[in-house]
Amino acid sequence: MLAAFAAAPVAAVGACSSGTAGTGDTPGKSVTNDVTPTARDRLKDGGQLVWPVADIPANFNFLHLDGTLRDNSDIIFALMPSMYLNDAAGNSIWNRNYLAREPRFDTAPRQVVTYRLHEKATWNDGTPITFADFESQWKALNGRNPAFKVANSNGYQNIASVTRGDTDSDVVVTFAQPYTDWQSIFAPLYPKSTTSDPETFNNGWTKRMPGPTAGPFRFAALDQTARTVTIERDPAWWGNPAKLDRIIYRGVDASAAADAVANGEADFYEIAANASLYSRAMQMNGRVNLKRAGAPFYRHITINGARPHLADVRVRQALAMAIDRAAIARALLGPLGFQPQVLNNRIYMLNHAKYRDNAGNIGAYRPDAANALLDEAGWRLSGTTRSKNGAALTIDLVISAGVAESKVESELVRSMLARVGVAVTVRAVPAGDMFSRYVIPGNFDMAAFTWGGRPYPISINQSIFAEPKKDANGQLAVQQNYARSGSAEIDDLFRAATAELNPERAAEMANRIDGKLWQVLPNLPLYQRPDVWVVRTGLVNFGAFAYASKVYEDIGWLA
Fold it and tell me: Are 67 and 205 in contact (CB under 8 A)?
């Protein structure tokens, strides 16, 4: 399972009084990804792509708290507008399909971004896309109305106003505080009909797509029994027509992914850190291609600080020091031929220029120190298990069933924590329930999954580590902070870093933030996960994308 928001390289924004930012080139051409880039005239017109997903998304509103899984993003970004795309290195590219010209970017006297929408930009029910859609999404996501259960308010909370320019197609976004990653907002953009009402926002896209959409594909069918979502070429699309007739997203358990490709029931699968899937790929030589790239995916263990026995930071730190992360990296990465290396940064990956080891003593394998810290916290060893006030120190570790790396990691963690008197119960749950029933509502002590996704490392991590606050109804608004722990100091540093337009100063702040996170310990990074895919021969403009946006209309089969 991958959550959609994650760490990735900075798209630098220069500090200038006025001008523009970005380019208008098509993403996916960089040599740092592996997608078999192929001209459209060499592709077959028609055909279908069977795209394996863990399960049907619980909510097709990607902006909602329940909608941010990668499976959902893979569907929604084929249907919805984004003002900016990214190339394989994470650089921002203004989207010519939705914008008539490069957005104007001003910083004096305040930061203002002005968009001119493409003259043909319309929702597929014929309604023009206008400033009103932007304004409504900002009001829904800025955090001022707790009735909207938003995944995050990153960037939107910095905006003072969204107004009409000279025409309905001119959108003027004025920021109250500077926001360095302004290209990340309005991606995707939903129609005003979705974002103007909390009930529609929260529940209107649950298990269905009421529309309208505005992309190269449109929604065609949902079959809960067969676990499929089908999208089809949209004749209302004004850009290059999609080469594929349809894409079928099919629920496939991770353990069955290789069989699905071998049997023609899916057209690709992800190896990640699964040695068995890698071996299966070697057996299909000639029928598939192996695709590799560097991407911001990392395995980690989220630690639920809202649980009474984990609320004490000393306990969380002791658990971290009792886990031999190097041994876990060797077990998962060694069989794939990758150099086993632990990840000591949550914001920047190992292959990023701004990466710095911020772990200190907390990140080192120190079982003796872990024992001492647990003693200090009042958890005394009695026999083989620690207890306090008559209660045993037992950890409920939730993993996604069928994910091989989760199984290996959990068994190693159980063995390692047993050595310091902590009992671990591993609970393997259905992939489709992992987030909706366990991670998001906080029904776990520890949970192992992957953070991964898209560029803008500082701002996208802001909602993952922001200290949760109670809303007007007394409910804890966690956004994506499933650990439910944080600090005002970390929040202040995030606000300063996302408002810093100098990329060097912003990166320095980001590493300071990560250093603080090692003290608070909302999660324990394990290793940067390999970005390796097995793709059926003949499928092009598809594979290991690195940081590049998918150009759905160009995905297809060689003629």
Answer: yes
The strand pairing partners of 164, in sequence order, are: 171
Structure tokens at 338: 């990758």
Residue 533 in tokens = 């895919």
Written as one letter, the residue type at 396 is D
188: preceding bond cis by omega (within 30 degrees):
yes
pLDDT confidence bin for 453, thresholds 50/70/90 = low
Rg (CA), the chain: 23
Q: Cα–Cα distance between 321 and 300 in angstroms, integer?
A: 14
Q: What is the pLDDT of residues 125-143, one digit of tens each?
A: 999 999 999 999 999 999 9
Measured CA to CA, the distance from residue 91 to residue 106 in angstroms comes to 19
Tokens encoding 250: 């099919």
Cis before 198 (ω within 30): no
Please give the pLDDT value at position 266.
97
Confidence of residue 446 (pLDDT cuts 50, 70, 90): very high
User: Residue 375 is encoded by which pair of tokens?
Assistant: 């003693």
Q: Chain centroid to CA 378: how far? A: 37
What's the pTM value of the predicted model, to 2 decimals? 0.83
What are the C-alpha distances in Å from 294 to residues 187, 533, 547?
22, 12, 8
Cα dihedral 19, 161, 505, 461 in deg (nearest 10): -120
Phi-psi bin for 227: left (phi > 0), alpha (psi -120 to 50), beta?
A: left
From residue 167, how far is each of 82, 116, 214, 309, 543 by CA, in Å? Answer: 20, 9, 20, 57, 40
Dihedral pair phi/psi, residue 537, rounded to 5°: -60, 135
